[in-house]
């Protein structure tokens, strides 16, 4: 098998939490303060010259600021880089017509600053894999003496051995809502499989079924969002009952909600790649989900109703696609993104495009060729055909029964993975 170098992040618990928490808290608070200084600077520059400064400009403006020296210089640079990236993301959404997008806010709860993630690059940490320790640098303002540092004792998962990793690029300290943990960002060499086959599959991302898959050989699959919707509802209710939305309790609940969603995305992307390997798929065609945020004929954001908008804008489609890409890469499966424009209104069997053919959210009925299809699967097949056209749309004869009867996979809370609907008990 061929080998390839990829980036992986390994999470580790901190074994001497009680001894280092105060120091880690001070760094987390410092990162929030620097973020706020940068946020204020961006607002001032935008108001004066109608320009959002990039990462290098922000660093030039603030490298002499007192808050910059609270962290190691590379850690301060990373805070400002994240802020610049957040502004670019917001500005890009607004430019594309998403009027609901908000600029990055200040990291401050009343008079208190939250614990922000701190990133240490090569010069900011020293790793000792023999004794499972990592030394993290402080900024000059937080040092009691010139060589002061934080020494964290850590424990990774049993299947992770950092001593075999040749290149640990970054170390991040991350507050989970209850304690600090370490994230080691590494370059690792992995064996790459031969491509499973030459078939294609289309993937349509949506707000009822998170993913609908249409395979080249004719069958299809749905991945409903029941579990994720239940989590959103449960945690939203719990957070709403908190006395303060910025309280420690609300923060812990938000972290738990985020962690469960991350697990869902990881598990779903892994399951889809495994299914592709089983089906001999060499290319995954994913619809670019940004299109579902705007009306087809205007620059206004789509209105899916109160609950639809809440769900749609809280799901990280881009994040899921990134996870899918790197998991597919290991299996030598290519992931291609294509525009979704018109895929929900066109018949995947004859090409007829008519708004009224989408009878309701889950049903598509073609008035020309009489195709009856699950609407999301029909969209997924149209997405697939943008890379691998089907003979059916060129006058060929192809049964369309598979469009209306997709297999359904649900997230099983008992096992933490996906399984056919009939085998899920939770």
Automatic annotation (TrEMBL):
Keyword Protein transport appears in the UniProt entry: no
GO MF annotations, alphabetized: DNA binding; endonuclease activity
Residue ranges of every copy of the Probable transposase IS891/IS1136/IS1341 domain listed in the record: 183-292
GO biological process terms on file: DNA recombination; transposition
Keyword tags: DNA recombination, DNA-binding, Endonuclease, Hydrolase, Nuclease, Transposition
Sequence ranges assigned to domain Cas12f1-like TNB in this UniProt record: 317-383
Domain of life of the organism encoding this protein: Archaea
Region named Disordered: 94-113, 382-404
Family designation: In the C-terminal section; belongs to the transposase 35 family.
Protein name: RNA-guided endonuclease InsQ/TnpB family protein
Origin species: Halorubrum rutilum
């Amino acid at each position: 098998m061929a080998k390839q170098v990829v980036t992986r992040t390994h999470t580790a618990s901190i074994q001497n939490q009680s001894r280092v928490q105060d120091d880690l808290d001070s760094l987390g608070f410092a990162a929030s303060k620097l973020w706020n200084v940068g946020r204020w600077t961006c607002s001032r520059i935008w108001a004066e010259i109608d320009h959002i400064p990039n990462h290098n400009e922000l660093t030039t403006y603030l490298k002499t600021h007192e808050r910059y020296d609270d962290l190691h210089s590379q850690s301060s640079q990373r805070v400002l880089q994240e802020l610049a990236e957040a502004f670019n993301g917001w500005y890009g959404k607004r430019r594309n017509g998403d009027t609901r997008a908000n600029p990055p806010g200040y990291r401050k709860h009343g008079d208190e600053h939250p614990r922000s993630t701190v990133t240490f690059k090569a010069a900011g940490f020293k790793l000792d894999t023999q004794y499972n320790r990592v030394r993290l640098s402080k900024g000059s303002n937080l040092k009691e003496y010139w060589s002061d540092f934080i020494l964290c004792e850590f424990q990774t998962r049993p299947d992770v051995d950092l001593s075999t990793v040749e290149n640990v690029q970054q170390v991040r300290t991350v507050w989970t809502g209850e304690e600090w943990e370490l994230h080691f960002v590494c370059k690792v060499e992995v064996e790459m499989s031969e491509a499973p086959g030459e078939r294609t599959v289309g993937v349509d991302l949506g707000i009822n079924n998170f993913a609908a898959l249409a395979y080249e050989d004719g069958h299809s699959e749905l991945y409903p969002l029941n579990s994720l919707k239940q989590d959103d509802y449960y945690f939203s209710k719990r957070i709403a009952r908190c006395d303060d939305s910025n309280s420690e309790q609300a923060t812990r609940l938000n972290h738990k909600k985020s962690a469960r969603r991350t697990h869902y995305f990881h598990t779903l992307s892994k399951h889809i790649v495994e299914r592709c390997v089983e089906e001999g798929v060499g290319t995954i065609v994913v619809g670019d989900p940004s299109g579902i945020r705007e009306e087809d004929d205007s620059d206004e954001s789509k209105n899916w109703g109160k609950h639809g908008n809440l769900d749609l804008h809280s799901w990280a489609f881009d994040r899921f696609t990134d996870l899918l890409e790197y998991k597919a890469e290991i299996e030598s499966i290519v992931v291609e993104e294509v525009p979704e424009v018109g895929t929900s209104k066109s018949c995947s069997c004859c090409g007829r495009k008519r708004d009224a053919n989408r009878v309701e959210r889950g049903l598509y009925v073609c008035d020309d060729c009489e195709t009856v299809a699950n609407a999301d699967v029909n969209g997924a097949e149209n997405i697939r055909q943008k890379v691998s056209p089907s003979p059916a749309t060129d006058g060929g004869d192809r049964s369309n029964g598979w469009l209306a009867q997709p297999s359904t996979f649900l997230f099983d809370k008992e096992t933490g993975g996906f399984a056919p609907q009939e085998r899920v008990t939770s």
